[in-house]
Design goal:
With about 130 residues, this protein is mainly alpha-helical. It contains five helices and three strands, in the order αβααββαα.
């Protein structure tokens, strides 16, 4: 898996790593048991501070995406029931959706076009899951 960083996006670097690993794990690009680069190796590849990668990995471990094994490395965790309650997961997603709606408003994208885009992206996501599954 290759991580691409955009230092001009305004999104913290550690969150960019978190989002890309989450996306890769959800789409099947990263499968349960796959190893990720060590903190040192990824930091060197991306030319960023090790603490930034460590923070991203810690967040991914907290969210149940990764499993950090002392002395062995970092691995994609086998999916299990989310530790968050359904309402907490819905609240987290609602916050993300609110940001998308505001951005769509600023880009002058109509509600119908936004719904169509969401449907298209969902279909693409499910197709990638089938292709990788």
């Amino acid at each position: 898996m290759v991580v691409h960083l955009n230092f001009k996006s305004g999104v913290p670097v550690y969150l960019q790593i978190v989002q890309q690993v989450q996306s890769a794990a959800a789409s099947g690009v990263l499968r349960p048991g796959d190893a990720l680069p060590s903190v040192r190796v990824l930091a060197e590849e991306l030319r960023i501070n090790r603490n930034t990668v460590s923070r991203a990995y810690a967040e991914l471990e907290k969210e149940g995406v990764l499993e950090l094994r002392q002395g062995s490395g970092c691995f994609v965790k086998v999916p299990s029931a989310s530790p968050l309650k359904r309402s907490a997961r819905a609240d987290r997603l609602a916050t993300e959706l609110d940001a998308v709606i505001v951005q769509a408003h600023h880009l002058q994208i109509a509600d119908g076009a936004l719904r169509s885009l969401l449907d298209e992206r969902l279909a693409d996501f499910h197709q990638r899951q089938r292709d990788n599954g």
